[in-house]
Amino acid sequence: MSGQTLTDRIAAAQYSVTGSAVARAVCKATTHEVMGPKKKHLDYLIQATNETNVNIPQMADTLFERATNSSWVVVFKALVTTHHLMVHGNERFIQYLASRNTLFNLSNFLDKSGSHGYDMSTFIRRYSRYLNEKAFSYRQMAFDFARVKK
Prior knowledge:
Oligomer: single chain
Number of strands: 0
Shape: globular
GO cellular component, one term: plasma membrane
Number of domains: 1
Pfam family, one: ANTH
Protein name: Synaptosome associated protein 91
Largest sheet: none
CATH class: Mainly Alpha
Keywords: Cell membrane, Coated pit, Membrane, Phosphoprotein
Subcellular location: Cell membrane; Membrane, Coated pit
């Protein structure tokens, strides 16, 4: 058993039925399991950013949608996945994020489901601000200094 909740399985099945493999991979990368996104899902999404026929705005919107979840685990995994794609994905992904006025509006995020949710809420608010700033700095400079090969 993979540990996914029934909600996670239903959401992944819905994306499979609609034919959106990218949305399905985002859903599978941002499950309710308390562990990082699986490498195979992150690798698939990185590869998808390099495909010319993949809709980058739809991919980003699916990640933003997952970040509106009430569970800190899902939101955290959506932020981690977005950050991973910003760093390792095709530059078109971060260009799209930089073109948006707002990314994550999580300044009031609070998971009241338990003490761990309260503890992680502060970190999630901080992490979302960091990603917003990273996209904003890319918009200002048109360059990501973290991507420079050393």
